[in-house]
From TrEMBL:
<dbReference type="Pfam" id="PF00795">
    <property type="entry name" value="CN_hydrolase"/>
</dbReference>
<dbReference type="InterPro" id="IPR001110">
    <property type="entry name" value="UPF0012_CS"/>
</dbReference>
<dbReference type="InterPro" id="IPR036526">
    <property type="entry name" value="C-N_Hydrolase_sf"/>
</dbReference>
<dbReference type="GO" id="GO:0016746">
    <property type="term" value="F:acyltransferase activity"/>
</dbReference>
<feature type="domain" description="CN hydrolase">
    <location>
        <begin position="1"/>
        <end position="246"/>
    </location>
</feature>
<keyword id="KW-0808">Transferase</keyword>
<protein>
    <submittedName>
        <fullName>Acyltransferase</fullName>
    </submittedName>
</protein>
<keyword id="KW-0012">Acyltransferase</keyword>
<dbReference type="InterPro" id="IPR003010">
    <property type="entry name" value="C-N_Hydrolase"/>
</dbReference>
<comment type="similarity">
    <text>Belongs to the carbon-nitrogen hydrolase superfamily. NIT1/NIT2 family.</text>
</comment>
Amino acid sequence: MRASLIQIAVDEAEPVASRRRRVACLVREQSGADLVVLPELWTTGAFAFEDFGAGAEPLRGPTYEAMAEAASDAGVWLHAGSIPERAPAGDPAAGDGPLYNTSLLFSPSGDLAAAYRKIHRFGFDKGEAVLMAAGSELVTARLPHTTLGVATCYDLRFPELFRGLVAAGAETLVVPAGWPERRRSHWTLLARARAVENQAFVLACGTAGTHAGVPQAGHSIVVDPWGEVLAEAGPDEQVLTVEFDPATVAATRERFPALKDRVLGLDAPPRR
């Protein structure tokens, strides 16, 4: 299986419409890949909190349309990173609906195969944590060669989410992110940890550039089920392409069946 992670540089001087067209061209250039992955919130920048509202789109908005067409033209499965999604208002009199950090997965025909609303929002009572609502559903998607489990950026710090994805059949964990340079060591460590503990491939795609004054880590990474780094990008915009064998997951889990020895479930015990 061939995967291409497109580590997009977000430049605040570049109009969003121009970046969208540029990224669509990059996706089309990956024809021949099985899976293409984009980063988190690449239309606005993950730390450009003040732009979330103005940059929000309906699920089937301009980014959806551009990425669906690009996936179809390239004939690839496309994880189009995430967008600030403005959900419909439940009550027409209430005005705009809530914002979500929503990932989109398209099939090679350009159809929407899955959408994931980020569960863990970053910010510690500010930024994304207060501006966006939390998703509540784990999302997996069956591809011809593997089952994807979908997570986003800050989710990487919560291993129970990934256990849930593996319990749902995930073999390849895809993590788009806008991870800051100052915590890059955590990015690499956590990607490898999630791969080892879940005996799964991890494809973690970050951004380059600077979001609202926050330098981005870049260093997108692909890790195998033994925690070995198969490929890693540098700090700047680039396309990281790697070939891997999804059958390695089943072989690893059979050779070293640690997942069978789990005792604790996902539910926390009641407080006394």
